[in-house]
């Protein structure tokens, strides 16, 4: 029997909605505090790494939603984006020891993931406003209403200067 490698360990953190739902059931039975955040993470830099480390500190399990290539194109970023394909971006995020699960999503927003995950803490960068309740505001954090309705917290993390 082949022993699992570190590569296998990283790959096992990249989940479908089905595998994530199973992991969530186990984590909930273990009373783990679930944290969710999302982003493109096109070229991983120190700002991303510090952001994810701080998000991880908000609970026991950090789940990261990574925008698919198609969803990045629809976001209207530079036409050459993403620079890395979704599988590479997801793998790199999964390789971080602060991350327990990565799920690539194709929707324009992570709303479906927030509904699936029901996180205890929803985290975004400080370009958003944790207190904004108007969904049409660009500072509104998608899914914050769902998290608050179940007694969870919505937090923002300041950007690292220069990143």
Q: Would you kindly provide a brief summary of this structure?
A:
The protein has 163 residues and is of the alpha/beta class. 36% of the residues lie in helices and 17% in strands. The protein has a single domain, classed as Rossmann fold (3-Layer(aba) Sandwich), CATH 3.40.50.
Describe the protein.
This protein is α/β, with parallel strands linked by helices. It has a single domain (6-157), classed as HUPs (Rossmann fold, 3-Layer(aba) Sandwich), CATH 3.40.50. The protein is built from 7 helices and 5 strands. The protein has helices at 6-11, 17-29, 46-56, 69-74, 86-94, 111-117, 144-149; strands spanning 34-39, 61-67, 101-105, 121-125, 153-157. Strand 4 (121-125), helix 7 (144-149) and strand 5 (153-157) form a beta-alpha-beta unit. It is globular.
CATH architecture: 3-Layer(aba) Sandwich
Mean pLDDT: 96
Shape: globular
**How many helical stretches?**
7
Order of helices and strands: HHEHEHHEHEHE
Report the end-to-end length measured between terminal Cα atoms.
Answer: 45 Å
Question: Can you tell me the CATH superfamily?
Answer: HUPs
The helix-and-strand class reads alpha/beta
Number of strands: 5
CATH fold label: Rossmann fold
